[in-house]
Amino acid sequence: MSKFDLIAPLLDTDFYKVDHRRQYIGGTTKVLSNWTDRGSRLKDVTHTVHFGLQAFIHSWMVDAWRPFFAADEDTVASLYEEFLLNTLGPNDVGSEHVRDLHRGSTPSLRSALTCTRRA
Length: 119
Fold this sequence. Notes:
mainly alpha
């Protein structure tokens, strides 16, 4: 167990993305992210099946975040800053966005679409 377990979901990203929020044009109100099955890289395998999305969403978007939201805001913000300092060195990423998320002021909308691709 690590002292950073409280903020583990915040760190579940490609590390170059930790400061992407400042790359959005001022006034941006929506950002789209998707999860697309890429297909098979195996010869003669022409289809993939995706299953378990609901279980993944519940596990990652609900269970994994529970400790973060149960902890004190100052604690998670401080841990985030400490982790970034230890991994990136001196930086100006900050933690105000982490505080906003903890306060619930970062809205999120999730939806899943069924898509059938035919050859």
